[in-house]
Fold this protein.
Amino acid sequence: MLGSIKRSGRFGASDPLWGFNMVEIPLRSDLPHFTVVVELDGTIYRLEFNWNTREAAYYMHMYDADEAIIQGSLKCVVGWPIGVLQCTDSRRPAGMLVFVDSANSERDPVWIDGKDLYNLDTVTRVPGYGELGDRVRLRYLTLADMQVVASGG
């Protein structure tokens, strides 16, 4: 299923790419491991996200439409372009993926495990919660916007 992509509003002056409209890729905050399928600059990609308990960090793997891996084990770090400098594969998106902290705390996203709450004779399960897709959003600077940046506009 193709994820619905929406254009984000303008960034504030403290954001890394202030002044550019960017595509926001919807992510799930209710699962530590999930996949989204998106179209970026006319090409279909499958992005897989995994919470790594040992490192306390999310990682992203990028696949093409045929589910062949383009780039794997990309650590989800706020404010840093994802896979742009490391990937020479021509199938990668032409623009730039970046995680943006909507609270401006500049903290990387975390996963908080669910737990059981006991109250007399009842037990309530509180589900796990992830900041990826909630506080931390994945945005895409399109090829057209990249060309504007390159031309100094």
